[in-house]
Write a structure and sequence with these properties.
- With about 140 residues, the chain is mainly α.
- The chain is built from 8 helices and 2 strands; from the N terminus they run αβαααβαααα.
- Helix 1 runs parallel beside helix 4 (about 60-70), helix 1 (about 5-20) crosses helix 5 and helix 3 (about 40-50) packs across helix 4.
- It is globular.
- The termini are far apart.
Length: about 140
């Protein structure tokens, strides 16, 4: 999305989430987006750090604006479950059969979600309970 204007990038993200959720009523909550931008000091620091090492294709301010709107996508439980169901089926939408991402990318996304950000509770759980080995998941030893 490096060549997109922020409004186009936000629209593309929103269309994708609506597609995944199979629900056109998914929206960006503008008050949440504003709040994200108002208190994004840590994100701004990280974005500027990334920019200093040429790891952003756009200015930190533009990237943070898109990020704040992405974070402000408002969904109910059913919409969220539908949007994420492809991650439970090796990247494939179980209803349509459409491959959203490769199985490998799906595993990487799941690993990232398990171990970072707002999913910290999941990481704590995984640490306390442990993670199954791949062989165990495939029925091997």
């Amino acid at each position: 999305m490096a060549s997109h204007e922020p409004r186009e990038a936000i629209g593309e993200i929103l269309r994708f989430v609506r597609f995944l959720a199979d629900d056109e009523s998914v929206v960006v909550d503008k008050s949440i987006a504003r709040s994200e931008r108002q208190f994004d000091y840590r994100n701004a620091g990280l974005a500027n750090y990334l920019a200093a090492f040429k790891n952003l294709r756009n200015s930190p301010d533009r990237v943070l604006g898109v990020y704040a709107h992405h974070c402000a996508i408002s969904m109910n439980c059913m919409q969220l479950a539908f949007a994420g169901r492809f991650l439970a089926d090796a990247g494939r939408n179980p209803q349509s059969g459409l491959q959203i991402v490769s199985a490998e990318r799906s595993r990487r996304i799941n690993a990232l979600l398990l171990t970072c950000g707002q999913y910290e509770g999941s990481g704590d759980f995984a640490f306390q309970v442990g993670l199954p080995r791949r062989a165990a998941l495939e029925g091997g030893y």
